[in-house]
Amino acid sequence: MAKELKNTICQVTDLRMGFSPRNQFNEEGWSFSINAGDLIALIGPNGSGKTTLLRSLMGESTLLSGKVYVAQQSHSVQEWKTREIANIFSYLPQEQPFEPSQRVDGFVGLAYVSCNGVLGKITEEQAELLENQLRLFDLEKQREKTLGSLSTGERQRVFLARVMLQPSKIVLLDEPTNHLDPEALARFWNALSLFKGDKTVVVSTHDIPFAKKMSDGVLALRAGRLLFCGPTSDFFQRGLINDLFPSLAT
Amino acid sequence: MRTRRNYFFVLLLLSLVLLTPFLGAERLSLSDLNKFDSLSYRIFWELRFPRWLLTLGVGGMLAVLGATYQNLFRNPLSEPYVLGVSSAVTLGVVLGEFFFRQPTDSWGSLLCGMILALLLILFLTWFASSRWGSSSEKVILFGLGCNFVLSSILFLVLSFQFQSVGGGAMRWFFGFIPWVETQKAIVFLLGGVGFTIGIGIFSQALEALRLGDSVARTLGVSPQLTRNLFLLFTSVGVAVTVSVSGTIGFVGLVIPHLCRMIFKPSSFRILLPQAFLLGASFLVLCDGLSRALVPPFEFPVGVMTTLIGGPLFLVVLWRRN
Amino acid sequence: MSCFTVKTAFFRASLGFMALGLLAFADSGSARWVSTSPQVTELLFQLGQSQHLVGTSDQTFYPEAAKQLPKVGLLFNPNLEAIVAQNPTGIFWDESSYRPDLETKLVRLGFKSVRLNLSSVENLFASIKKINEVLGNRIDTPELLQSEIIWKKAGYKSVTFSFIALAWAEPPILFGKDTFLLNLLEELGGTSILPVHWSNSYPKVSAEWLISKNPDYLFFLKHDDASSLFFQNQCRKWWPKTPEKCVGIPAEKFARASLTPLLHLAGLKSEIERRK
């Protein structure tokens, strides 16, 4: 039985991030790599830099120096054009701004702007995929409702539906499970696991049980340091979780 | 059932709008309307009709401009004059009259107004493209600051020169639909419709921008470029509209909200034509009332929009709750 | 001579000197007046009372000498401190510059306050009488005599016409009740098309009402060629067949309610007759 050779989709070298050159977040540069098709759990205490890392992986201004090579592109992600970013990434921030009067199906349909462009229309094929997505996230009955009329948990599902529908290679999710009830939480992780192999997903989360169960790899941050980057089994076997969250020790 | 109520409302509005040219200071004889050069003919076709067309255009534009700004700045309290473009036009006109003796309504005066407005717009666009203007909040705050500065200069000039600006200043502050030839009115109305269609075509860019700058980038929409282009075109639209009609308040701020409450559009692209039609109808009705309430006195249109619109808005808000 | 007689003589003499001194003091004390309106200033010059003027409002351009006077505030906004700084005997107001709050303060400070009404020709002559009383002098300048002659001349109401006087063209704002220009034109024989019961001094009306009323004349104040063109164009739009309806009245002659309009009345009358 041949072991599947995993490709590296993201190679990070000496990454330094922060909000301004004088305000660098991590003292030492971080270097790690992410395999294609993996589900990576990004964990760490609040303020450890999870959001900043996700944004830096996309090439935003928080990336101060270092190189992030994604999907065999020759230049580092901070030099990419918007079109190239749209082809590869989809992103869900921790606080997603939204227009309260927008309808659920309209919102989720925005995912296709990334490939159809601003002037494009949704094709029949894409419309069908949209239907499936709504069903997958249990939003069929709410498709005509406005975002403002939904509960926070329902809205979070809509946001997730959009970001997962986008035809991208890497999905970056910033604490997407914050508002979800246990049922929705389970469904979310199940939905994520469906994308394994197709998309690379980096999820920043506090949800340790599911992360342990579902993820392929772990990126652990603490106090401005990259504590660990590697397979999930490694991380939990070495008991590194206790370094991150000492009070979790049973 | 809701749709049926909407249809009824739209029909009522439409019929009122079509009746408005028959309102006014003078009673017209309907039989004379076709008699060329009779008094009724002249008043109806030369005075009221082009004014009706122009008012439709101005009302529609203001509502669309307001809706666009509200979307662009993610702020429901935005309205077309928030960035100070109207103050710039008014100040330009006042300075033109003060320094260059250009009476209001002459081409020179309009040119002064537009020049100052364009200077402000270029300044705003420069700021929005720079690294300081990297977010919607920063841009709107900068615009607010500019608005304060321009308004204070305007008031300063007026406190010294009030008597020489007199009736003209009234018009810029309270809004007034001028009397233009029918062709010009048609051009403006078509321009307004074209502008709305243009914004509608690119509305998905705005919707993407609405999701936040980072998410917009992942959708292929460059945030600063998109914001700048929309800012530029919308502000020019405001400058042109204010040059025509002065500052008419309320329409740009409240009509988009009324639209959302009554018609519940499913996206911004659908909101735009609704806002245009509702804004146009509303302003036409206000203008008709301002002519017909105490004839032959005429209220400035801006006074009427707030007088009627304010309570109307409160009623709709109350009934929704 | 007894000491008593000398003392009395001295006493009487010194009393006499004191009386003369008081008179001199009283005379120079009543000689300082402040005007808060350019038309009052011009009027005072024309009545030969300019030696009593120690201050005027901003925007005073007529006559030439009045430009040198110290300014006591903006046109419709007199400044209390500037007025007091001139140490006047009293202040002249007209109906456009009158400020009751300022008046109360000035009266409390011990200054006299005289309200003039220049809203019609009759009121103008009444105001001249009032100025006469206040300044305690006989006024008989050539301008005043000439004005009185022109005014008393019979036949002014011989030309009859209907009119409006336009203060602003778009939106149409008219000279209404209690404006000098309206009254002057009415005295010339004109009938304003404004309804009698309108008390607004500057009513804003609808263009279609103007068109249908179709007055014989539309008067406007001509400040310069540019603004004049503005009014002419509007008039041409309203009555394209009779553009000669539009009569521009030179502002430097007719904008202020002083003797100047009266002195040029003949010119205006002949212009109206010429167009009839």
CATH architecture call of chain B: Orthogonal Bundle
Put simply, the count of helices of chain C is 12
How many angstroms separate the termini of chain B?
Answer: 19 Å
Strand % of chain B is under 5%
Percent range of helical residues of chain B: over 70%
- What is the terminal separation of chain C in angstroms? 88 Å
Biggest sheet of chain C: strands, sense, closure? 5 strands, mixed
Could you tell me the number of beta strands of chain C?
11
- Flag low-confidence runs of chain C: 21-29
Structural class of chain C: alpha/beta
- Main β-sheet of chain B, in a few words? none
Rg measurement of chain B, Å:
20 Å
SSE topology string of chain B: HHHHHHHHHHHH
Strand segment tally of chain B: 0
SSE layout:
The complex is a heterotrimer of chains A (about 250), B (about 325) and C (about 280).
Chain A: E1 8-20, E2 23-24, E3 30-35, E4 39-43, H1 50-57, E5 63-70, H2 82-88, E6 89-92, H3 104-109, H4 113-116, H5 124-136, H6 152-165, E7 170-174, H7 182-194, E8 200-204, H8 208-214, E9 217-222, E10 225-231, H9 232-237, H10 241-244
Parallel strand pairs in A: 4-8, 4-9, 6-7, 7-8
Antiparallel strand pairs in A: 1-2, 1-3, 1-5, 9-10
Chain B: H1 2-19, H2 39-72, H3 85-100, H4 107-129, H5 136-174, H6 182-201, H7 203-210, H8 213-218, H9 223-245, H10 251-263, H11 268-292, H12 301-320
Chain C: H1 3-29, E1 33-35, H2 38-46, E2 53-55, E3 73-74, E4 77-78, H3 80-85, E5 90-93, H4 100-108, E6 112-115, H5 121-135, H6 142-152, E7 161-168, E8 173-174, H7 180-187, E9 190-192, H8 207-213, E10 217-222, H9 225-238, E11 246-250, H10 251-254, H11 259-263, H12 265-275
Parallel strand pairs in C: 1-2, 1-5, 5-6, 7-9, 7-10, 10-11
Antiparallel strand pairs in C: 3-4, 7-8
